[in-house]
Design goal:
The chain has 318 residues and is an alpha+beta fold. It contains ten helices and 18 strands. The longest helix has 21 residues.
Length: 318
């Protein structure tokens, strides 16, 4: 049976656009829902008599049987009536989320990825334990609310540690939105170590890098793109401080052990796709950092010239 692809995404998502173009080029039927516009631009229905979901936009309607695979690219909060009370807006959001969850959790075709598996996989601490149990190198890590733990950890690693969040966040400030990057902990900051008592904080041994690697893994492929973040002062600590003019990206061959680990972790969490971050250290070792079950990849393609879109698309039509 030739598969069709439903894409659940958000407005102006370049990843979805790239994959849609590839699907169209291959002649694969596809349907896209811009999820924040669900209430204004689409109709959705579940009917218990046949257990089916239907979706419609202003041009056509589809019934989601097993011939459809779903790319759960990113489901967004729906645009709501701003004049409604907040509790009512929250109710609308919850009902939309539950409807999407019901579709994604019960669909008889392939879903990349189901929300329950995404939730299960999205714990940095569980990922670290999983990696260590399978013989992978991981930077020494603590999460603590005790200043004494932090001080001991800092001394143990001779001051060579970094702070990072367990979950990415954007902080709204009067000066605009701020992203919290990975940062090395300074001696001056350690004088305020008591601040960790305000919430659990994750600290990690800082590994000196040759380069970083983002690995895009699917059911059948494991592709590593080296990010030469050390070529720029801006991106040395965290490659997400992008410096495209000075940082080289290139596809690299991965060791068998790393490929097998990525495949095993995907299978363990029930995922069909994942973006893995590794460090290739100065002493030529691979250190696992984290798995993002819905990680970004298009910029890797644009910077390296390697066709990641084709691999992602193959995974959606299989």
């Amino acid at each position: 049976m030739k598969k069709k692809v439903l894409i659940l995404t958000y407005s102006d998502d370049p990843h979805a656009l790239s994959v849609r173009r590839e699907l169209d080029r291959r002649g694969v039927e596809n349907f896209t829902v811009v999820t924040e516009n669900l209430l204004s631009d689409y109709k959705i229905k579940f009917y218990s008599k046949n257990g089916s979901y239907t979706l419609a936009d202003k041009q056509r309607s589809i019934e989601l049987d097993s011939s459809w695979n779903i790319w759960n690219r990113r489901v967004m909060i729906p645009d709501r009536n701003k004049g409604q009370p907040k509790d009512l807006q929250d109710l609308v959001t919850d009902e939309c989320e539950k409807t999407w969850d019901g579709l994604l959790m019960t669909h008889s075709g392939k879903v990349v990825n189901r929300p329950q598996n995404h939730f299960y996989a999205n714990s940095k601490l569980h990922q670290i334990k999983f990696a260590l149990e399978r013989g992978m190198l991981v930077p020494d890590t603590i999460v603590t609310t005790d200043p004494a733990d932090l001080e001991n950890f800092y001394r143990e690693h001779m001051g060579n540690i970094c702070f990072k969040l367990q979950k990415g966040a954007v902080i709204r400030t009067p000066e605009g939105n701020k992203v919290v990057y990975t940062n090395k902990v300074t001696e001056a900051q350690m004088r305020n170590s008591a601040l960790v008592s305000s919430h659990p904080s994750l600290f990690q041994e800082y590994i000196e890098k040759e380069f970083e690697i983002r690995i895009i893994a699917t059911d059948t492929t494991t592709t590593g793109i080296a990010i030469h973040s050390q070529d720029s002062e801006r991106s040395k600590i965290d490659y997400r401080r992008y410096d495209f003019e000075n940082v080289t990206y290139q596809q690299v061959e991965l060791p068998k052990k790393v490929k097998e680990f990525c495949a095993t972790m995907l299978m363990h969490y029930g995922l069909h796709f994942g973006a893995f971050d590794f460090i290739y250290s100065k002493d030529k070792k691979y250190y696992f950092l984290e798995l993002n079950p819905n990680g970004q990849w298009l910029w890797l393609e644009e910077q390296s010239g390697y066709n990641v879109t084709s691999e992602v698309t193959n995974n959606l039509v299989e």
